[in-house]
Design goal:
By secondary structure, the protein is α/β, with parallel strands linked by helices. The chain is built from ten helices and 15 strands. The strands form two sheets. Strands 1, 2, 3, 6, 7, 14 and 15 form a seven-stranded mixed beta sheet that branches. A six-stranded parallel beta sheet has the order 10-9-8-11-12-13, sandwiched between helices. It starts with 14 loop residues before the first strand and ends with a strand.
Length: 353
């Protein structure tokens, strides 16, 4: 439901953003569905951690984009002072456990008032990335869906050839010959962007897996070389497509038992597995193990501010485009219901009425 609140007033380093678009994410469902005592921050607060808009007002000590400039908001807010924060990696802030313990929130819409509103108060201009003339409904999802996908691709990129338009055939060593392959499991709001980012930044063969035919159609439209439904023989199919040795890397945007089982079955020795989704699946790590020997497992979380700048640059030149469904802010309950029931194609975006 919509609630009237006072317009925030920026003080000190704070910046006030007039919201032009706010994304809706499955993380919002986790917040909505949590027990009252099950969240690491105090309630109530306004949701919305994917936010694009225009700088409306700055506090007297604020730096960064000027009033009137269009921006996207970098979502994970750390302490701003530790080594990682000063390098732009506030997603891995050294003091995040302390912030969690204080229950003050770690970003817009995550313990602090977010962007599903007319205005958003941001604590510092360092958290803003200019987007130029990029449409707001395209810019907002880049701050989480685009950034998280990009960060996951960055983590596996050493295994993949660089700077190509992905025409590789068969499996290979990832030596730069265009012969490496990567499986994208789950072609939803993040997965369809990962396909495009892989095509724009590597020469790898991109293999897409989902349980929905419409998701595979979206993967095809985004440039995937191959798509298949999740079946009992999918791991074997991916291995055959990768020259019989298995794929060089897997991006799992589901994280369920079945998706992790598929990832392990399709991955080659010495490959990379990035578990991005939070579907409740588990892996047992031990030696000896059913895992391929030499496998590297990562749990990427969000991304860095410099990476957000790179994602925005890709979007501005047309290499990445978000598949969106737009709703008026007053229709947020309908948008959330569609997301909850799995009827959303791509990313859901709210636009102020």
């Amino acid at each position: 439901m919509l609630t009237e609140v006072a317009r925030p007033i920026p003080r000190a380093d704070e910046v006030l953003i007039r919201v032009e678009a706010a994304g809706v994410c499955r993380s919002d469902l986790h917040v909505l569905d949590a027990r009252p005592d099950g969240l690491p921050y105090r309630t109530p607060f306004t949701l919305g951690h994917e936010v694009a808009g225009r700088v409306a007002e700055r506090g007297p000590g604020a730096n960064g984009p000027a009033v009137g400039e269009r921006v996207v908001v970098y979502g994970p807010w750390g302490c701003g002072r530790c080594t990682r924060c000063t390098a732009g990696a506030e997603n891995y802030c050294d003091h995040r456990p302390e912030l969690d313990a204080a229950r003050t929130g770690t970003g817009a819409g995550l313990g602090r008032d977010g962007g599903m509103a007319d205005f958003l108060l941001v604590p510092s201009g360092r958290l803003l990335v200019p987007v130029g003339d990029l449409p707001a409904a395209q810019a907002a999802p880049l701050s989480d869906a685009g950034l998280t996908a990009y960060h996951a691709v960055t983590g596996i990129r050493p295994s993949l050839p660089l700077d190509g338009d992905g025409d590789g055939e068969g499996g290979g060593s990832g030596s730069g010959s265009g012969s490496a392959s990567v499986a994208v499991i789950g072609v939803g709001g993040l997965g369809h962007l990962a396909v495009q980012i892989l095509r724009a930044t590597t020469s790898a063969q991109v293999l897409a897996v989902d349980v929905r035919e419409e998701a595979l159609a979206l993967a095809d439209a985004c440039g995937a070389h191959f798509g298949t439904l999740l079946r009992p023989d999918t791991a074997a199919a991916l291995r055959r497509r990768a020259g019989g040795v298995g794929v060089d890397a897997v991006l799992d945007f589901v994280g369920s038992h079945s998706s992790l089982e598929l990832a392990v079955g399709a991955l080659r020795a010495g490959g990379d597995l990035a578990v991005v989704g939070s579907g409740g699946g588990e892996l047992t790590v031990r030696k000896p193990s059913a895992l391929p020997p030499g496998v590297r497992i990562s749990l990427p979380f969000w991304g860095t501010r410099p990476e957000l700048e790179e994602v925005v640059a890709l979007a501005r030149k047309g290499a990445v485009r978000v598949e969106t469904e737009e709703f008026a802010l007053s229709s947020a309950p309908e948008a959330i219901d569609r997301l909850r029931s799995g009827r959303t194609r791509g990313r859901t975006v709210l636009v102020p009425d």
